[in-house]
Amino acid sequence: MPDTTPILALPVLLPGQAQPYVTHNTALRRLDMLAQTVVETFDAETPPELPEAGRVYALGPVPTAAWAGHPLTLATWIDETWLFIDLQPGWRAWSRDGAGLRIWTGTAWARPQADLDRIAGLGIRADHDATNRLAVKAEATLLSHDGGGHQLKINKATTGDTASLLFQSNWSGRAEMGLNGSNDWSIKVSPDGTGWTDALRINANGRVGIGASTAYAQLHVQHADAAVDALTATVTSTSFVRNVYYAQVARAASANYNFFAAQSEFGATSDIEFKLRDDGNAYADGSWNGGGADYAEYFEWQDGNPADDDRRGLSVVLEGDRIRPAAMGDLPVGVISGNPSVVGDADIGRWKGKYLRDDFGGYLWDIDGSAGPGSPPGATRRLNPAYDPTRDYVSRAERPEWDVVGLMGKLRLRRGQPVDPRWIKLCDISATVEEWLLR
Fold first, then answer.
1. From CA 257, how far away is CA 276, in angstroms rounded?
2. What is the enclosing helix (H) or strand (E) of 27?
3. Integer Cα distance of 339 and 368 in angstroms
4. Fewest 10 Å CB contacts: which of 29, 71, 127, 404?
């Protein structure tokens, strides 16, 4: 018969044993040490100077002094000596120094691994409930990758259900984003947690609605507030040199689409009031209004204006298709304008000869060479072989050899300039400038 128990090595009483109380007391002391084991610390290396009975230490791999030679054991002070007990895998101990509960694996004290699969709920510094089965109370929550990327997945059962992130203030909802009752991704906001407004919605085709439950364009902005602008673009840079709005289309200009169209009375009886067509033509149901007072066209100076003189207010005559200052006795065709309302024969940042035209100014098209204001389906303007895309083009407005000649309307002339007898003087602007009506 063994003289100790197989697990805790407690001494047992043998038949005819003398002083059985000694064996019994030894077993009780070991049991007192091992049952509900509480240690002062794990991996202890140095014994205390004044050991106390009832204090248990989990020794580390290299204990010193009175503990030397007893690595990875439990040590306790009994009857003025140290008692060492060998560990067995699976033994548990709690540490007073805050290390918590550990389990002896056979080589080290390890933290227990809780089985969290299919638990009813989990609260981290908070209480979970039947709805919020995971509750976390903290300043932040970190979800990190494990060697690559990381996804947070929120799944719902059916299209009509909700899969979203809800943002609250004092436990009342203020913003929510996700799949709210549909498969469109949306952001909705609320001032009080009761009334909600769709602020942004992106459907499965990628169309974006701002204030619109259904987006009828790639970007659809809608609201019903009579005192709020529907769309505003603000540039705060004081050195801005680009475009506030910039529209681009891959299709060539062909009079088949518009860069801009404006409707009134939106609905079944809507009317187009403005339209900027792709071929550079603009339309309005009413009038175009400008701050200028004359109709003008670009003409080229015969002398090229080599000194880049300011020739506003000079009356001019034609020499072929160019202009020169009018001399006494000449019948001028117009006046160099300083404030035209409409300017013809202008350019828009490109060489006017970039595309080939027929004798009447209509574009030639690259499908069949047909000319005219319209274009065959899918046709593009025929590029001029002389066009060089590597050269920077300077517009007529920036070139001294070109000027704007007012041909009709109110224009200001320098005093003493030749005039057409049909022109009517309106008033003196200053001692050197007069205002005339050209007709």
1. 9
2. helix 20-34
3. 42
4. 127
Query: Which domains are seen in the chain, by residue range?
Result: 36-138 (no CATH), 292-349+393-439 (2.40.300.10), 352-391 (no CATH)
In DSSP terms, 284 is beta-bridged to: 274
pLDDT in tens, 57-112: 999 999 999 999 999 999 988 888 998 989 999 999 999 998 889 999 999 999 88
- Structure token pair of residue 5: 């128990």
Question: Could you tell me the sign of the dihedral formed by the alpha carbons of 397, 400, 404, 410, in that order?
Answer: positive
* Residues 69 and 62 sit within 8 Å (Cβ to Cβ): no
369: confidence class by pLDDT, cuts 50, 70, 90 = very low
Contact by Cβ (8 Å): 73, 59: yes
219-263: pLDDT as tens digits: 999 998 999 999 999 999 999 999 999 999 988 887 789 999 999
pTM greater than the 0.70 cutoff: no
Q: For residues 332 and 406, what is the distance between their CA atoms, to the nearest angstrom?
A: 11
Nearest to 284 by CA among 295, 272, 293: 272
Give dist(CA 231, CA 224) in Å, integer. 13
